[in-house]
Design goal:
This protein is 24% helix and 30% strand. It starts with 8 loop residues before the first helix and ends with a strand. By secondary structure, it is of the alpha/beta class. A six-stranded mixed β-sheet has the order 4-3-2-5-6-7. Strands 1-9-8 form a three-stranded antiparallel β-sheet.
Length: 180
């Protein structure tokens, strides 16, 4: 049996910590407050964009004080690569989106290719509205779609991993956001 590759101390030593856990928790608290202010009288469906947004969604849910439903959607441009390609779909929500307010929970918005496809999908399912809450937004990148309405943290145009985001399939469990 061969061992799986791991993110080594050398990899982390070479990476720059952009945000630590305290920074991330503060950003999630601020996003939760914004969502509470906007959706206090609605019952939206939160769609976790797998796999990257799983950690953000888990941290965000207990801070939301409005009625909501949860489902997930799985589409990605990255897979295990560090450069985005064609969008690949793995799962579409089981919940009926028709006439519902949808909040896409994302780990990161880069150019917005995936976000654009996710918004289009929800609108094709006749969602009443579609917004996006993302933990991380690449701020100095030309966007191809409407930007996320709720943003936790801005980062420069670097490949990042940690707190749900991966580096070659690994590192999602790191308690910070690191850049190569």
């Amino acid at each position: 049996m061969t061992s799986s590759p791991v993110i080594t101390h050398h990899d982390l030593a070479q990476a720059e910590c952009l945000y630590d856990l305290a920074d991330i928790e503060q950003a999630i608290d601020a996003m939760a407050q914004q969502l509470n202010d906007v959706y206090h009288s609605n019952t939206p469906i939160l769609l976790c964009v797998m796999n990257g947004a799983l950690v953000t969604m888990g941290q965000l849910l207990p801070k939301l004080n409005f009625a909501l439903e949860v489902d997930y959607i799985h589409a990605s441009r990255y897979g295990d690569e560090t450069v985005g390609g064609k969008i690949k779909w793995w799962h579409q929500p089981e919940t009926d989106l028709k006439n519902r307010d949808i909040i896409l929970i994302e780990d990161i918005v880069d150019r917005g290719d995936t976000l654009s496809a996710l918004r289009d999908y929800c609108l094709q399912q006749q969602a009443k509205s579609v917004s996006c809450a993302t933990l991380v937004n690449k701020s100095n990148v030309d966007k191809v779609c409407t930007p996320a309405e709720f943003v936790g943290l801005d980062i420069p145009n670097k490949f990042v991993f940690g707190f749900g985001m991966d580096y070659q399939g690994l590192g999602r469990n790191l308690p910070g956001i690191y850049a190569l």
